[in-house]
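Summary: Need help interpreting a holo structure output

Steps to reproduce:
1. Submit the protein chain below together with the SMILES for pyridoxal-5'-phosphate.
2. Request a joint structure prediction with the ligand placed.
3. Inspect the structure token block that comes back.

Expected: a single structure record containing both the chain and the bound molecule.
Actual: see attached output.

Input attached:
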Amino acid sequence: MQLDDARALDRNDPFADTARLFDLPQGVIYLDGNSLGPPPRPALDALTKAAQAEWGHDLIASWNSADWMGLPLRTGARIARLIGVDETSVIAGDSVSVNLFKLAAGLVMGGAKGVAVERGDFPTDGYVMEGLARLSGTPFTLIEPGAGVAGLPDGHDVLVRSAVHYKTAAKVDIAAEEREAARLGRTIIWDLSHAAGLVGLQLERDGAKYAVGCGYKYLNGGPGAPAFVYCHRDVVESFAQPLSGWMGHATPFAFKDGYKPATGVSRFAAGTPAILSMSALHGALSAFEGLDMAQVEAKARALGDTFLAAIAPLGLETISPPSAQRAGHVSLVHEDGYAVVQAMIAEGVIGDFREPDVMRFGFAPLYLTHAQVFNAGQIMVEIIQSGRFSEPRFGKRNAVT
Ligand SMILES: Cc1ncc(COP(=O)(O)O)c(C=O)c1O
Ligand SMILES: Nc1c(O)cccc1C(=O)C[C@H](N)C(=O)O
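--- attached output ---
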């Protein structure tokens, strides 16, 4: 592949208009939208409006006049379309970690026994289940990577599983896993952090009942953006959400003693929502309006292929699966991976590094072109072939990578 081939692919890009919503800094090729998405203009506009006109001017009246009360559900409805579920079954709020706790602890309180996570999945999922096990006395087990629901040991009803693996980008066949879960009488909570806003998810069609996901990655909601939780309408009315705070109460402003959950997914709210962050997320989601998520996913994979073609001369090992089973990023192994990524950042190509030796590059389709990605690949080739990464300034680890 040559640069002209990449440019030819860009001529058929269905997302050329969407790219205009993003003002990335000049000279930067941003390959880290899988960790922190950049701000689309509607996110910044919504944030400014919420801060100045709503908070600054209308003050507390904005809970009603700007419908701050309804914002978590309105934001959830926008996310619902992207993950293929009923628009009333998603609510935005809290973090992935907290929402995972709500779902898993609610299942355990409802009688489920034993929770499991695959070894090597994103650590917070295991940490939270470990805490739940300590609290509730239910067993917690780390199972083999890729084992899926069939790998749940006896006495374990619940598996928490990433739909897309944070390190490898391997994509799970959700429908097949849910069929297996139904056959075995077990339950899966999906972590959609690296899938939402990227993969053409159809959770309801595929039989998924419970999921959580991140607002700050491909959804571009901003640092610390609220996460979301999905609970299928068939199970939500009997679901006992354990963080039973007043915002999930049926009548929060009646200030009554005694908890009575709100109907539907509103019961997953706990405390007061982070309105400024959620306004940014709500605005950011408008960038997805009218987009076909299957096309978004297809472009992400094609961009990954362009990158791999550009760096082919390096012959690096990849831990990511081939295109058909891969989602939005590509991970490559290099013993000096940290220094290589730092040297690339110094030349405007922003990716990230995951211990011990993985260089990770994300290909968010809404603002990246094949030509940019091909250039990024060529810069990587030059940096490695010239040895430029071995300057001492590139070897010093940051706290956040
Ligand atoms: C798969 C996965 N799950 C969970 C998280 C953490 O989410 P949070 O910080 O919202 O708890 C991340 C990233 O930080 C992630 O990649
Ligand atoms: N949430 C993050 C943060 O606060 C700082 C740096 C990175 C993150 C991330 O989201 C990491 C990400 N989940 C990952 O896949 O590595």
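--- end attachment ---

Reviewer comment: The chain has a mean pLDDT of 97. The first strand starts at residue 29 and ends at 30.
Status: needs-info
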